[in-house]
Amino acid sequence: MEHIVEVKNLKKSFSIGRGDFRKKYMINAVDDVSFNINKQEILGLVGESGCGKTTCGKLILRIINPTSGTIMFNGHDITTIPQKDMARFRKQMMIIYQDPFGSLDPRMKIGSTIAEPMEIHRMFSKDEKEQKENRILELMEKVGLTPDQINRYPHEFSGGQRQRIGIARALATNPTFIVADEPVSALDVSIQAQIINLLKNLQKEFGLTLLFITHDLSVIKHISDRIAVMYTGEIVEMATRAELFKNPLHPYTRTLLSSIPIPDPKTKKRPVSLKGEVPSLINLPSGCRFHPRCQVCKKECSVVKPELIEVTKDHFVACNNLSS
Fold first, then answer.
1. Which tens digit of pLDDT belongs to each residue from 229-241?
2. Alpha-carbon distances, residue 119 vs 34, 65, 173, 306, 320 (angstroms)
């Protein structure tokens, strides 16, 4: 299949701690990550808070610059090109933010908010004011908003409606690729389903490619074609949605799946408990980073760092104990 995004050995390091009496540390928020996203596919990126999911999404969009590695977008290497030269790619790649209120300017009416990307990319001239307004109204209708809401401010909308505004803004430039950064985590469960269904419908209608970032596997199950699981800056497993839920091979993935609640009081399910806590990125374990919490680790796991390998077709796992 044709790839729209190709990421190879991507790394992002941050320096923390400053001043005369504080030691400086380097942390690898994203550490040697490689994956592809196929055209018109939804790739789910899942993991605990702080594992590097959002950083990975921002790196692909070049909102932040990578420390090393390669980012290919539509066959073009965008890893190190200057920000001024990124303008021709910005129109094709957009983001939907996690916070549906914080991502909107409280002083801007939503019509202006949706129009802003069009104006930045000069999609309409001054003489095409009517065409621009028709485009805004069309986008509002696509996401479930009404024309009479065009002159309202963000505080006049509910959380779900604000996220619809954010989605309309992301669609304004007719992008081919969208990073959806936990777009439903701040919403009520009933509203989450509406937004997920909306994104699925829009993805099919416009032929979009999505990187859907979340910590909730029950959400990712309903929207993704493939799923990549992250732990402390690394991808530990990647497979199709059906394969991952049917045959999880990494102990961390199995633990995540066991924690998904079943909406049936008669069904008893015993989640797999993990030892300890997520390690600090300042002081990561040697070998496999998951080994201090793993129920099936071997002696070599504390020494040998596992590589992400293809164990069956399109099923990649980084584990020294695949036979267990």
1. 999 999 999 999 9
2. 34, 25, 10, 48, 52
